[in-house]
Amino acid sequence: HSGQTGHISITGVSKYFGRHKALDNVSLELEPGSVTVILGPSGSGKSTLLRAINHLERVDEGFIQIDGDYIGYRQAGDKLYELKEKEILRQRVNVGYVFQNFNLFPHLTVLENLIEAPIAHKQLNRKAAIEQAYQLLDVVGLRNKADAWSRHLSGGQQQRIAIARALALRPRVMLFDEPTSALDPELVGEVLDVIKKLARSGTTLVVVTHEIGFAREVADNVVFMVDGKIVEQGSSDEVLNHPQHSRTRQFLSKVL
Ligand code: ADP
Ligand code: MG
């Protein structure tokens, strides 16, 4: 538990799609090792914010830093210059990303899914990557599935492998965008259990989810977004038990 890296700083970020403002002056400070849950109605900008943290969306105003590095940019004097594609890809190694639809490589085994990225990024040789893959399979409780075809796993198992795959590049921060929304209800718990385990490991986590029980149990910070704006943020107790904003209260009364 180093707790040293994984500080995310979001400063005055706005993002337009045409004339639609999907992010409106969002600022957020996330401490190393903290767990943040982002809540908000559909279309409020949650996915756009996560994508911006990884420079999958280029923001129009403001900037995002991880451990002081500008995401997608480098600083020279008082100017920011966008990084080249290759440099952006290198920077993304610091950010693990888990989507709703896990997108494993279906034609690869579980083990092959877990060793591909660290070898491709020249982080590990094949032997070390395989060793690490088994460690990651222990983390997600699927060591016995190493040689299975990923398409033969249940949705919950595939999502656990997707989490392991994201961890294989040893990211400083992990982003989860509705990681359980595509799952049958009986499979949600096993995926949340893996994320809870990570929460205790010191990796900075940002989780977009409607699982309020998970937020209550695990989140250090809860952020509530409406129309691209953060309308409320605080501890999980503050936001979930004593919401100040009418939109937060309305939202919570619907999902609880
Ligand atoms: P959420 O994840 O909270 O449901 P999103 O971040 O996906 O919301 O979307 C925020 C807003 O931006 C929505 O109005 C959505 O339609 C719009 N939007 C998202 N991505 C695009 C895109 N690539 N092109 C145009 N509009 C987009
Ligand atoms: Mg979304």
From TrEMBL:
Coiled coil: none
UniProt-recorded Gene Ontology molecular function terms: ATP binding
Keyword Oxidoreductase attached: no
Keywords carried by this UniProt record: ATP-binding, Nucleotide-binding, Transport
Keyword Nucleotide-binding: yes
Domain ABC transporter: from-to ranges: 8-252
Protein's cellular compartments: Cell inner membrane
Record-linked Pfam families: ABC_tran
Listed InterPro entries: AAA+_ATPase (IPR003593), ABC_ATPase_HisP-typ (IPR030679), ABC_transporter-like_ATP-bd (IPR003439), ABC_transporter-like_CS (IPR017871), MetN_ABC_transporter-like (IPR050086), P-loop_NTPase (IPR027417)
Gene3D superfamilies in alphabetical order: P-loop containing nucleotide triphosphate hydrolases
Alphabetized PROSITE patterns for the sequence: ABC_TRANSPORTER_1, ABC_TRANSPORTER_2
Membrane topology (UniProt): Peripheral membrane protein
Family of the protein in this entry: Belongs to the ABC transporter superfamily.
Protein name: Amino acid ABC transporter ATP-binding protein
